[in-house]
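Example 435.
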Amino acid sequence: MNVYDGQKMADLLKPHGYSITESAEDADVAILNTCHIREKAEHKVFSDLGRLQVVKKDRLSAEINRDMLIAVGGCVGQAEGAEITRQAPYVDMVFGPQSYHRLPEMLAQLEHKVKGKRRKIVNTDFPVESKFDFLPTPDETPVSAFLSIQEGCDKFCHFCVVPYTRGAEYSRPALKIIQEAKHLVSIGAKEITLLGQNVNGYHGEGINGREWSLGRLLYDLAEIDGLKRIRYTTSHPLDMHDELYDAHRDIKQLMPFLHLPVQSGSDKILNAMNRKHNVDEYLKIIEKLRTARKDIAFSSDFIVGYPSETDLDHKDTIALIEKVGFAQAYSFKYSPRPGTPASALLTQIPEDVKAQRLAEVQYSLNTLQLAFNESMVGQTMEVLFDRQGKFPKQIIGKTEYMQSVTLDGDCSLFGNLLKVRINNGHGNSLSGEYI
Ligand code: SAH
Ligand code: SF4
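Predicted structure in complex with iron/sulfur cluster:
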């Protein structure tokens, strides 16, 4: 979603004469689009700001003599607000993820100096208008495009900052989404990934005026000529619904790969996290999806070392990982976040225990991922190529399961779904030959 937001910021500023620079040194405006989900992401913001401060000073030196405006956008901006300008007084502007459609007007305000001094802007509103109504239509797109359809979250898992930084759940009207998808395809997108914090909780106004679910919306998107692949992320187990299972059964463009975060394999921890489902219910969802589409594979998110997690809870997580046989997954040490209920618990787990558990979870996940990738050897897979590899004459694409495939070829193959025979399966990628 941050990538999507970043592209939209660039689209918004383009008509005002701004373009993307290759390096910060050349930038008149530097915008950090930030993430607040874990402490590490937040620390990065402050170290990046330190680097930008040096660039700003250098640019103001006699030789160049051009100022650089520094802005902090995204969820750290939302959460920290004016605290950022206090800690880093060279920051000119702070804004949250729901107010970036006002960037052109905020930048114009910054250009205004009173007695040679610039006023700082801190905009962490959750405006009544939807930013989506103010975002311009893009004139270029990657082959694999993102489309935000839902934002925010009302679930309040006890570890998570999203409901506070992105705000309440909002679903865009289906008509707007379908128009945006058609436009993206008309300018070259072959694959669209629908985005939302709880994308399968989508409940927007349908074209018939009734509320539509994500499942319902997918059927209409699948009608778009030239749209070869559809994905959606991130889903919450509680928001799986019948029309969505049906969509997985019926829609061949809907890729057989689903990211369905579970966080833990222990009922006790799931309950403490306020996830509102147990392990058994999660397994039933996996089963139903496998019944709907037998070639489906799964990815997930795991948090290790949540407060009060015991060795036994941790073993339950490993057992769940092995039971489902995830094709891929992300795993994180629990990071206490300001203002969340879990951060105030007295049963925090020591860092070294978290590190040990993370290593064990990742060992298990990596073993499964390698086995999944190796199981592709000898198969012919459809791959959508969209980027240059490390070497000249090498290109990279993605399988239905999001595995990266490298192949000898050139950029004339970008945007095509090609049949590739897989010769090698590695930990993080596949390689093969075009047939
Ligand atoms: N809405 C999605 C997840 C969005 S956040 C869901 O509910 O599944 C993305 C991932 O970041 C989460 O799945 C979780 O694994 C991780 N995460 C969120 N807060 C975290 C925290 N405080 N510490 C560690 N990981 C966290
Ligand atoms: Fe965060 Fe996802 Fe829980 Fe919402 S559902 S609070 S985004 S982890």
